[in-house]
Every structure is written in C-alpha cells, then in structure tokens.
C-alpha cells in the first residue's frame, strides 16, 4: 500500500514537473515569438493610421506641381519631417524624417514615439535637410510583409527597375522626380554611405564608385552625372550575407 502511494506521489510529481516545464516553454514561445509580432503589427497599424492622415493630399503619387508647402500636415505631427518618398507599385509611400543622429528613428515612428523598432524612414543626419546636397541617404527597416523599406530589395531585379525607373520626392517646395539608375548590394560600412565631400573630385570619384560597385545600372550613364548632381540613396537591410544592405540610387530632378 505504501509502495503504491509512493508511486502515485512520484508520478504526480513528474507530471507536475512536465506541466510546469510545458507552461514555461509556452510562456517563452509567446514572449519571444508571438508577442513581438503582435506588438509590431499593432505598431504598424498605428503608424499607418498616422501616415494616411498626414499624406500630402496624395500629390506625391499624382506628381502635382503645387508650390505650397506640401509637408504642412506632416510637420504638424513632427517638425522633424523633411520629405515624402513615393515609388509606384511598391509599399513605399512614406514620410521621411531627420533626427540629430542615425539612431533615434530606428526605434521611433513618424510621431517621434517608440514603436517597437518599426522605426520611420530617415535622412542621414549628416545630409542637407532640404535634399539640396550632393548626396542624400535615407534609411528604412526591412520589415516582413513588404512593410517600410522592404520593397527596396525588389530593385535587385534589373527588370523591375527597368519597369519602375522613377519615383517621387515631395519637399516643401513641390514634388521632385527621382530617376533611378543603380542598385548596390553591399554592407553597412561601405563607402557608399559617404555624406561629406570636400572637393569636386571627391564627388566625381564617388559617382565612379557607384557605377563600378553597382549590381546593375540603367537609364543613366556615368557621363550624365557630375558634381552638381543631387543623388538620392534609399537603403535597407537585406539578407544575402551578414550585414547585407541594399541601396537603390537615383538622382533628384
């Protein structure tokens, strides 16, 4: 009788251990997998609601020549807003902000609030705020389901770029055409991320670098660009190798 009772107690103890272990594993799976995805989805929906509300009357997609300040509604939400980027047939129809560093908007949304690292496309803090400099670099996260800057990687396909040679950049003074001509597959510390140029020759050397390092180029030739060119680089993470980055390069007209 005592032996039977002891066996029952042992069995109950083993079952209790299994139950606790199972509950712990379930909790860890929820907190490590389900909860982050849920938080990111909710953050994206909230961000998208804001974006839909402040989009500059869709003049970006229509290519309007309206000369009034197109970013007024954006600036009402966040005066760090410096532009709006639109690329047809992609999910890139997004505001661009600029912070005091290249870290803040990796983790915070267009309203400046933390959004579970969804972030917001942002202009490199070293670049000219009005995109009038030689090189303007905009970064955005590569989020699942074609969110944020994920669709930049579509341009790794030369045929896709050929079919989508242009985008639009809305600034305070109106909508500017962006003509894409190169796609680079590189790493985060590559020379492509240079933002400061001391001499005209540095700019010409940089243009040569872009053409030499590009996965493919089209629409424009090296001779079409010069030191007075206004380049736009759209950068996101890709996953071909460790620290991989995809950069879509265009010129701002």
What does this structure look like?
The chain is of the alpha+beta class. It has one domain (54-252): Sortase, Chain: A (Beta Barrel). It has six helices and eleven strands. The chain has helices at residues 2-54, 59-62, 72-77, 104-107, 158-163, 200-213, and strands spanning 81-86, 93-97, 122-123, 135-139, 142-143, 147-148, 166-171, 174-187, 216-217, 231-237, 244-252. Strands 1, 2, 3, 4, 7, 8, 9, 10 and 11 form a nine-stranded mixed sheet that branches. Strands 5-6 form a two-stranded antiparallel ribbon. Residues 23-33 have low confidence and may be disordered.
Number of alpha- plus pi-helical segments: 6
Give the C-alpha Rg: 24 Å
CATH topology: Sortase, Chain: A
Q: State the name of the first-level CATH class.
A: Mainly Beta
CATH superfamily: Sortase
As for the number of domains, it is 1
**Uncertain spans:** 23-33
**N-to-C order of helices and strands:** HHHEEHEEEEHEEHEEE
* Terminal residue distance: 91 Å
Helix content: 25-40%
- Global shape: globular
Q: Strand pairing plus helix content: what structural class?
A: alpha+beta
Tell me, rounded to a whole number, the average pLDDT: 87
Q: Any idea what the CATH architecture is?
A: Beta Barrel
List the helices and strands and how they pair.
Layout: H1 2-54, H2 59-62, H3 72-77, E1 81-86, E2 93-97, H4 104-107, E3 122-123, E4 135-139, E5 142-143, E6 147-148, H5 158-163, E7 166-171, E8 174-187, H6 200-213, E9 216-217, E10 231-237, E11 244-252
Parallel strand pairs: 4-10
Antiparallel strand pairs: 1-2, 1-7, 3-4, 5-6, 7-8, 8-9, 8-11, 10-11
